[in-house]
Specification:
Layout: H1 4-12, H2 48-69, E1 71-77, E2 83-88, E3 94-101, H3 106-121, H4 129-146, H5 153-172
Parallel strand pairs: 1-3
Antiparallel strand pairs: 2-3
Helix pairs in contact: 2-3, 3-4, 4-5
């Protein structure tokens, strides 16, 4: 028989409930995998690391090419066009300048390296002017391949259209003897599948003023 004191003790010192999970096997759940799969962070979308690696490669190529050939970028262009020129001072120093898109992908890298190519091969080294354009483009694509950059079908099409424009312009101005290197660029772009495509509006070679 319970007394009044027994009821008071239960109110003051209630019996402890058994600990949750005690006496049975504990459930172990593996930690959630981080989204993105790299760096242990969960806020990177898939492919972010790959894109960052590509950006770093293009940035490194840009820095190295400018430093190697002593070229200064006057302005980064938004359009896929460029210009290269040099300024000679009375004391004999020469400033090598370009405007081009900042390399972030195959096309912008090709245009950038094309302008660099004008300085590397030297102005007035090749005549007529369309032949200089050919060698600047050849330098661009060869450099991309040597550096492991992707030379896409779009880049090759841009080269062809640019050189066809240069050849047509030279012929309109009275060019008589066409260098054999430029013979393939007298015809429209055929592409990898042999299908001819129309020249894109504004596909031109590099224009450059004389310093």
């Amino acid at each position: 028989m319970l007394t009044l004191w027994d009821l008071v003790k239960r109110v003051i010192h209630p019996a402890r409930a058994p600990e949750r999970g005690k006496g049975r096997a504990q459930e172990h759940r593996p930690p959630k995998a981080a989204v993105g799969g790299t760096g242990g962070t969960g806020d990177r979308p898939p492919g972010a690391a790959v894109r960052r690696t590509a950006e770093e490669r293009y940035e490194r190529v840009t820095r190295e090419m400018l430093a190697k050939h002593g070229i200064r970028v006057r302005r980064w262009r938004r359009a896929m066009t460029g210009i290269a020129w040099e300024v000679r001072y009375r004391d004999g120093t020469v400033a090598r300048l370009i405007e081009a898109p900042r390399p972030k992908g195959p096309m912008s890298a090709a245009v950038f390296l094309h302008e660099v190519g004008h300085h590397v091969i030297g102005f007035e080294t090749y005549r007529p002017r369309c032949l200089e354009e050919y060698h600047a483009w050849a330098y661009s694509l060869a450099t991309m391949e040597a550096l492991g950059l992707n030379v896409t079908e779009g880049v090759r099409r841009r080269m062809h259209q640019s050189l066809k424009y240069a050849v047509d312009k030279a012929r309109r101005r009275g060019l008589r003897a066409l260098p054999p290197e430029l013979e393939p660029f007298t015809r429209p772009w055929a592409g990898a599948g042999g299908r001819r495509v129309r020249r894109l509006a504004g596909a031109r070679g590099s224009a450059r003023p004389r310093g």
